[in-house]
Amino acid sequence: MTAYRYRALNPGGKLVKGVLEGDSERQIRSQLRSQKLRPVEVAIANRQAAANQPRLRLPFLQPRISVAELALVTRQLATLVQSSLPLDECLQAAAEQSRKARTKGLLLQVRSRVAEGHTLAYAMGEFPLVFNEMYRAMVNAGEHAGFLGPVLEELADYNEQRQYTAQKMKMAMIYPFILVGVAIAVVVALMVFVVPELVGIFAHTNRELPLLTRGLIATSDFSRDYALWVLLGVAVLVVGLRRWLRPPVRRKRWHRLLLTLPGLSRLVIAMDTARFASTLSILMASGVPLLESLRIAGQVLTNLVLRDDSAQVAERVQEGSSLHRALRQSGRFPPMMVHMVASGEASGELETMLQRSATNQERELEMTLGTIMSLLEPLLVVFMGAMVLVIVMAILLPIFDLNTMVR
After folding, report:
1. Are the beta carbons of 199 and 398 closer than 8 angstroms?
2. pTM
3. Residues 91, 21 share a domain
4. How many structural domains compose the chain?
5. Is 88 a member of any domain?
6. Which domain holds residue 121?
7. Which residue ranges traverse the bilayer (predicted)?
8. 85 & 137 share domain
């Protein structure tokens, strides 16, 4: 059966929307009429999943759901699977509990594949932008080992942690962005609207204005005449830079440059390696072999240079090297992570030590970002105050000398 998205009119003439399963559009229309609904539109819920043709699998046509929604769906599936319900009934129940039509249609499409006899990992492979390779690998390992419920619990915890971290970062950035926005708005308003009016006071004098005032007037004229062109130029520069960095070779050069910048390189390495260690830990805990876990965990690295390093680590491990020795030879993974991996290999608790390493790095990264934000906020206030002070001084200097100027 296929999931269909519909729009219909109820007896009161109100438009209602939803998702139903059926063998054809005609059957869906019959179901709607039996419910005293008048069909307006009936279409396959996720047409690109039903087409089964690679040429139609365009990225912008693929369904997407948020990390929070994915965590919620995964938690519901874990609870239902651990209740010993059949898998297709678990998917059906999770779809019925979802309030979003997109998520409901997605789950019903996955259920359709499972009902046809495919594994859950294969069915999720129809939606790679929702269920990434790590997610599918863990589900596949859980299905084969017979502990799908605990694996889904780990995935739910992982996605909830991602959501929590992202939300915390967004909340930390709100205040600095507000300060920057207010500073820019105040300065632009003064330069475009206030300064030209005040300059008229000195327009009829024959005395030369102070250098600071002349600079302010020139800046005001430039802002009034060319501000839109400057904004357009910045937008073009950003778009051009993104296009220039699109080829992997150039993007790798850019990523290598980021790793050479003091301070910034530490943040980039901490963010990526923490994600790498966490992913590797849950993959191995789910029963995925070490080499396959290393290959998948390497894909979560956003820095292409670090991704190449992870591939070299996998090659050294495949050749017989221990994991901690391969990580040390790379030279970019944090020493604390290498030592904890060595301890885990020696004690037979590699998954636990990897998770502790990821937790320690995330905690250190959070403290570093918190310190930066704490310093940035007063610096922005001081900068905004300094800009306003310069503008006020540029206006007041000729006023102080106004009696001399009019003689």
Report:
1. no
2. 0.64
3. no
4. 2
5. yes
6. 67-161
7. 172-195, 226-245, 379-400
8. yes
Domain end marker among 97, 129, 161? 161
List the structure tokens of 50: 């039903």
Q: State whether 81 and 152 are in the same domain.
A: yes
Are 36 and 77 part of one and the same domain? Answer: no
Rounded distance between C-alpha atoms, residue 319 and residue 298, angstroms: 18
CA torsion angle 267 269 275 278 (round to 10):
-110
Judge if 40 and 71 occupy the same domain.
Answer: no
Q: What is the mean pLDDT of the chain?
A: 80
Position 297 in a domain: no
Identify the pLDDT of residue 50.
42
**pLDDT-based confidence at 281, cuts 50/70/90?**
confident
Q: What is the pLDDT of residues 199-251, one digit of tens each?
A: 666 656 666 777 887 887 788 778 777 878 888 999 999 999 888 888 888 88
Answer yes or no: is 356 within a domain. no
Residue 341 forms part of a structural domain: no
